[in-house]
Structures are given as structure tokens and as C-alpha cells.
Write a structure and sequence with these properties.
Blueprint: H1 7-16, E1 21-32, E2 39-51, H2 55-69, H3 80-99, E3 111-123, E4 126-136, E5 143-152, H4 161-164, H5 170-184, H6 187-190, E6 204-207, E7 210-215, E8 228-232, H7 234-237
Parallel strand pairs: 2-3
Antiparallel strand pairs: 1-2, 3-4, 4-5, 6-7, 7-8
Length: 242
């Protein structure tokens, strides 16, 4: 005899399943500089939504990823492959223009340019995404950033702080962030903090722990200290949520 599963149980299973899937666009190129030993190393690895969402929602999500990954204007980015290819060609032109005449004159002509984008954990109706970028153009060290995006899992829209918080939230949340930073940093580090910069900056993720804001090196502390994160719990933020 076949075992029948109650309709409500079937619906519950269907609703609990996350059918979201991501694919990855990759490009890895090393281009030697003509006449020299140095080269341009370009690498891209970007995850994008491929199934498990309505097509308009996936298109919104992927367009936001392309825009943020390649620092483009919204609506003018085209497909992920087109944007990455255009970025690569512009980078090649810039590399050749700036370095071709310097072959044999300078010890370091190698450039590096890496972009990695990937989906993170989901929480409630949201899904996190991060884009890490690193470039080296010579000098003592390279430059790196980490860009965070929170997506609405159903609509594909980017979630902003104004979507999370009610009117009048900015000042009290900023005060909580400053208080948290000064609590967690060691006393000898606090003197370097640029307090006026500790405000919600749109670069955040969400989890069971609350909302975590990330500041790039040099935003709040000197570069040597690296990035700074500030996490406020949902309990602390409850009075200011929508």
C-alpha cells in the first residue's frame, strides 16, 4: 500500500526547501608585458543567481552584483560576461599605457587585479553576498576592499539600512556603533579611531547575531590595523527597526 503524505505536510516541505542555485563566472588571465619580465594578472570569480527564483528577481540580483563588482552605473552594465570582459580590456589598455615605456627602467611592473564574489548565508527573508577586491600597482602593499550586499530572497532587491530601520534611526544607531567600537578596542588603539566616521555606511550583512557593518582599512583606523567590523544585536536594534 502506498503511503499518503498529508497535503499540509507536502506544502510545509515545499516551503521549507531553498531551491536557490548559483553558478560561477570565472576568468583568469596572465598577460606578460612585451619586452619585460613582468605581467598583468587578472582574475575574476563571480557567483550569480542561476535558478530557484523568478526570472525578474534573478535579473535584479545579478544586475546589482555586476554593478557592485565592476563599479559600474546601474542600468548600463550589460551581462556579467560583457561587464567582466570590458573591465579586463580597459585594465589591459591601462597597464600597457602606463608601463610599456618603462620596461628596463623600473624593478616592479607587475600588476594584480582580483575580484571574487560569492553568496553567503541566508537569514529570514535575506541572503548575504560579498565581493572581495584586491589590486597591486607597485609600492609597499596592495589595496583591498570587501563589499557586502544584502538581497531580498524573493524579489532580488538590494536591502538598504532604510529598509531595515524606521524614521529617526540614524543618530541612535550611530551612537550604539561608536559605543561598541570603543568598548571592544584596546585602549592603545582607541586614540587612532576616527570617531566621526563610525556611522552606518551601507556596507553590512545580517545574521542571527544581528547586523554587522564593515569599514575598509583607512576608513576608521590606519591601514595597518586592517578592516573594522561593528556588530549590533537584534535586541539592541529592536527599538529602531521597522
Amino acid at each position: 500500500m502506498k503511503r499518503l503524505i498529508p497535503l499540509l505536510a507536502v506544502l510545509s516541505i515545499a516551503l521549507s526547501c531553498d531551491r536557490f542555485h548559483a553558478a560561477t563566472y570565472q576568468d583568469d588571465m596572465v598577460m606578460p608585458l612585451q619586452g619585460g619580465q613582468d605581467s598583468l594578472h587578472f582574475k575574476v570569480s563571480i557567483q550569480y543567481a542561476s535558478s530557484g527564483m523568478l526570472i525578474p528577481a534573478m535579473e535584479k540580483m545579478n544586475a546589482a552584483i555586476v554593478t557592485r563588482a565592476f563599479d559600474l552605473e546601474g542600468g548600463e552594465n550589460g551581462s556579467l560576461e560583457e561587464a567582466a570582459s570590458q573591465y579586463r580590456e580597459n585594465l589591459i589598455d591601462e597597464y600597457i599605457t602606463e608601463n610599456e615605456g618603462l620596461v628596463g627602467q623600473m624593478p616592479v611592473l607587475t600588476w594584480e587585479d582580483y575580484t571574487i564574489g560569492e553568496f553567503g548565508d541566508k537569514y529570514r527573508d535575506w541572503r548575504n553576498y560579498s565581493i572581495s577586491y584586491y589590486c597591486y600597482r607597485g609600492g609597499a602593499h596592495g589595496y583591498s576592499t570587501l563589499s557586502l550586499i544584502v538581497f531580498d530572497r524573493k524579489s532580488g532587491e538590494v536591502i538598504t539600512e532604510d529598509n531595515l530601520f524606521a524614521d529617526g534611526w540614524l543618530a541612535p544607531v550611530s551612537a550604539l556603533m561608536l559605543e561598541r567600537v570603543m568598548e571592544e578596542l584596546q585602549e592603545e588603539v582607541r586614540v587612532f579611531v576616527q570617531k566621526e566616521g563610525i556611522v552606518p555606511n551601507g556596507n553590512f550583512s545580517v545574521s542571527e547575531d544581528g547586523v554587522e557593518w564593515l569599514f575598509q582599512p583607512d576608513d576608521i583606523l590606519p591601514h595597518a590595523f586592517g578592516p573594522l567590523t561593528v556588530t549590533l544585536s537584534w535586541k539592541e536594534l529592536k527599538p529602531y527597526l521597522r
